[in-house]
């Protein structure tokens, strides 16, 4: 989304460091000479975002643009998950909220031939709406609780574990709710331009968007079980071909 930003945060690796995880963080203007954008962003889901490739060629960053030095970028990113990604989690929750509201409107407006009432009165539709509403309410409470704890406790291990559980639950909720709402809308909702079709495409990637569901469960399990992270074996050990 650099095209829309007034300031962008980029990372660089200091040449005098042999540690690949060492990084320098710079705050620079996207209008600096040597910066260009390759327009190659055309993905499924979250269509309001735009993350085209940002290419830097011989870009000079003045010394005052150096924001901070990071000894280990991997640890920095992993320990900052709640701060960086809770806002994205809330955005996905909003997709589910929007889909539920669109589904309510759709079933109220549709009255099949031979019926004297709209689809909103159908028992299966009512059950689906109630289930989706319960899922959205639970997800909303988890987001609020995680944000509240992050604001008061900072990025503690308990808060980080809370975030991973929140992202997992929100992602699964959004994927389930948007699909159910699309099905309630029937074939009418499959047409391009229909709000349910749009929100389904935006929400279907909620379990994939970082951190994905499997990663969330893996990280939360380490905290819940009180495991020694240094003794947890990675899925694919380094050095394996």
Short description:
Helix content is 49%, strand content 10%. It contains six helices and five strands, in the order E-E-E-E-E-H-H-H-H-H-H. A three-stranded antiparallel beta sheet has the order 1-2-5, with no helix packed on it. A two-stranded antiparallel sheet has the order 3-4.
Report on the structure:
This protein has a three-stranded antiparallel beta sheet, with no helix packed on it. It is mainly α and 241 residues long. The model has no long low-confidence stretch (mean pLDDT 92). 49% of the residues lie in helices and 10% in strands. It has six helices and five strands, in the order βββββαααααα. The chain has two domains: 74 residues, Beta Barrel (Butyryl-CoA Dehydrogenase, subunit A, domain 2), CATH 2.40.110.10; 152 residues, Butyryl-CoA Dehydrogenase, subunit A, domain 3. It is globular, with a radius of gyration of 22 Å.
Keywords summarizing the entry:
2 domains; 6 helices; three-stranded antiparallel β-sheet; Butyryl-CoA Dehydrogenase, subunit A, domain 2; mainly alpha; two-stranded antiparallel sheet; Butyryl-CoA Dehydrogenase, subunit A, domain 3; 241 residues
